[in-house]
DNA sequence: GATATAGTTCGATAGTCATAGAACATTCGA
DNA sequence: TCGAATGTTCTATGACTATCGAACTATATC
């Protein structure tokens, strides 16, 4: 049961986080994660891209420090590192998520 | 005296803004602008890149809606569209600027 | 063991991006 | 008018990126 490396809070970098959030597919994924209380299967979140592409995006999000990924059985469970990001960049994630709520282009993605 | 097109508040897009902010050179530029009360000459802000590169970055920032650029004589004056961004994405710019203050990689750029 | 499920990795591709130098445009001073 | 100052545009380049399909890995189920 392979697990993946995650940056520590110290290693989380502002420009990496902003870059990770600047892709519509990734931003939509983060938005969906934020609305859930528990860990989510990657495949449970609707997206218009191939699963190999999604795997790539999840890697970018994980390496930026935004999400935590844990494999269990055949599935890989993701969760938002909300508290850690909030501690490091106060208000940032909340502001982005609030802004994403209004963004039609992002919302449209979750309906595909 | 050529002037440049700017997106209206309606046209400002979240992912474009995040992308514009995700480059260290641009984020540093925005951070410097935010600290000033008045418009700034492009060249007045220290950066480690060539002026043609800076011109490119300023274009990206302008097209994203983050800054306003106005030419006057031989110089081009830039200012942050703080209020408009705040109205569109409440708290976002403030959170990013606050986070950038702590980011050593960004601060280092302004000392070059 | 065979098959299905859930993701990952690999290889390829087309596109974007940051970068710089050279040439150019425009304006201001001497 | 001739330079100097300040940026912009053009072109090129190397790096990175989003995308996909195919092959693969690992686990679960029958």
From TrEMBL, chains A, B:
Pfam families cross-referenced by the UniProt entry: HTH_20 (PF12840)
Keywords: DNA-binding, Transcription, Transcription regulation
GO molecular function, one term: DNA-binding transcription factor activity
Domain of life of the source: Bacteria
Recorded coiled-coil stretches: none
InterPro entries named in the record: ArsR-like_HTH, HTH_ArsR_DNA-bd_dom, HTH_MetalResp_TranReg, WH-like_DNA-bd_sf, WH_DNA-bd_sf
Span of domain HTH arsR-type: 6-100
Annotated protein name in UniProt: Transcriptional regulator, ArsR family
């Amino acid at each position: 049961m392979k697990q993946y490396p995650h940056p520590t809070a110290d290693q989380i970098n502002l420009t990496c986080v902003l870059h990770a959030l600047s892709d519509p597919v990734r931003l939509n994924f983060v938005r969906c994660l934020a609305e859930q209380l528990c860990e989510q299967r990657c495949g449970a979140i609707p997206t218009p891209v191939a699963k190999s592409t999604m795997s790539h995006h999840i890697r970018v999000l994980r390496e930026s420090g935004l999400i935590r990924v844990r494999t269990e059985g055949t599935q890989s469970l993701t969760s938002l590192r909300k508290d850690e990001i909030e501690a490091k960049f106060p208000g940032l994630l909340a502001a982005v998520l609030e802004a994403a709520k209004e963004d039609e282009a992002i919302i449209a993605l979750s309906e595909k």
